[in-house]
């Protein structure tokens, strides 16, 4: 009987070791997943940390672009291009709108005019994406058939 008791204890100890090993492996996997999630969140934070600042800069950029179009000043145009290139290098992308299908996820319709149904006829304010996420929607006029206006 002593031998049976020893075997039983040995079996119990081995089962406990197996259970603790499995718990340790699960805890290690959970920790590794946590590290991955924290790194992904940190990368997202860095990507989008400048969103607030960019939203404050964009109206000034809009004004500079309008001024450059009206004045035709080459120096101002160069400065605007450099600013746009710098912002693009940080993940800013202009939303293309004119002659495109109206997309309510990227655009705000501020008016309608006669034209091809659901096509953007005019861009009133440029919209931007930051790292493929909407930063500021484009404001546009959308075409409607003459009978519907």
From TrEMBL:
Residues 3-51 form a coiled coil. One of its GO terms (cellular component) is cytoplasm. One of its GO terms (molecular function) is adenyl-nucleotide exchange factor activity. It is found in: Cytoplasm. InterPro entries: GrpE, GrpE_CC, GrpE_head. Keywords: Chaperone, Coiled coil, Cytoplasm, Stress response. Its main location: cytoplasm. GO terms for biological process: protein folding. Pfam families: GrpE. Homodimer. Participates actively in the response to hyperosmotic and heat shock by preventing the aggregation of stress-denatured proteins, in association with DnaK and GrpE. It is the nucleotide exchange factor for DnaK and may function as a thermosensor. Unfolded proteins bind initially to DnaJ; upon interaction with the DnaJ-bound protein, DnaK hydrolyzes its bound ATP, resulting in the formation of a stable complex. GrpE releases ADP from DnaK; ATP binding to DnaK triggers the release of the substrate protein, thus completing the reaction cycle. Belongs to the GrpE family. This is Protein GrpE. It comes from Candidatus Shapirobacteria bacterium CG08_land_8_20_14_0_20_39_18. The lineage of its organism: Bacteria, Candidatus Shapironibacteriota. The gene is grpE.
């Amino acid at each position: 009987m002593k031998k049976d008791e020893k075997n039983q204890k040995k079996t119990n100890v081995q089962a406990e070791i197996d259970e603790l090993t499995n718990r340790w492996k699960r805890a290690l996997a959970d920790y590794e997943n946590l590290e991955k999630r924290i790194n992904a969140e940190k990368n997202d934070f860095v990507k989008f940390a400048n969103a607030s600042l960019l939203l404050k800069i964009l109206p000034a950029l809009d004004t500079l672009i309008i001024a450059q179009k009206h004045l035709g000043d080459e120096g101002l145009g160069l400065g605007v291009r450099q600013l746009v290139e710098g912002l693009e290098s940080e993940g800013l992308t202009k939303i293309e709108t004119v002659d495109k299908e109206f997309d309510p996820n990227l655009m705000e319709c501020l008016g309608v005019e006669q034209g091809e149904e659901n096509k953007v006829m005019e861009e009133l304010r440029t919209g931007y994406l930051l790292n493929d996420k909407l930063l500021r929607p484009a404001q546009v006029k959308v075409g409607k058939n003459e009978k519907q206006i």
